[in-house]
């Protein structure tokens, strides 16, 4: 292919993270980290992310803003905004993306930041 790639070979994903690139469930989370019916653990993606020393910097994200809004409640969105978390849109090659029922998993080293959205922008 000589480095040429078309738009069909990529997908856009939306990740909630802070200025250090950490997600809301890593480290000292501002949220309740207990899995719930609304926020279930996707064990298939979890096993890929932590599987057998993959050595890859996998990150969890969402296919679209609607999934972000379904995952986080209104009080959680307020907590995340106060803790300076934002929604980051990434462009990811399809070969570096795994799609689950509620979330996606992507290889951060293969992704490019497209845009950072405030919670106001993401929720409008």
Please describe what this structure looks like.
With 124 residues, the chain is of the alpha+beta class. The protein has four helices and six strands; from the N terminus they run E-H-E-H-H-E-E-E-E-H. The strands form two sheets. It has a three-stranded antiparallel β-sheet with strand order 1-3-6. A three-stranded antiparallel β-sheet has the order 2-5-4, with helices on one face. The protein starts with 9 loop residues before the first strand and ends with a helix. The relative contact order is 0.25.
Termini separation: 40 Å
Overall body shape: globular
What percent of residues are in strands? Answer: 25-35%
The secondary-structure element order is EHEHHEEEEH
Spatial arrangement of strands, main beta sheet: 1-3-6
Low-confidence segments, given as residue ranges, are none
Report the structural category.
Answer: alpha+beta
The counted number of beta strands is 6
Sheet with most strands: 3 strands, antiparallel
Give the % helix.
Answer: 10-25%
Radius of gyration, taken over Cα atoms and rounded to an integer in Å? 15 Å
What is the typical, i.e. mean, pLDDT? 83
Figure out the total of helices. Answer: 4
List keywords for this structure.
3-stranded antiparallel β-sheet; single chain; alpha+beta; 6 strands
Q: Concise description?
A:
With 124 residues, this protein is of the alpha+beta class. It contains 4 helices and 6 strands, in the order βαβααββββα.
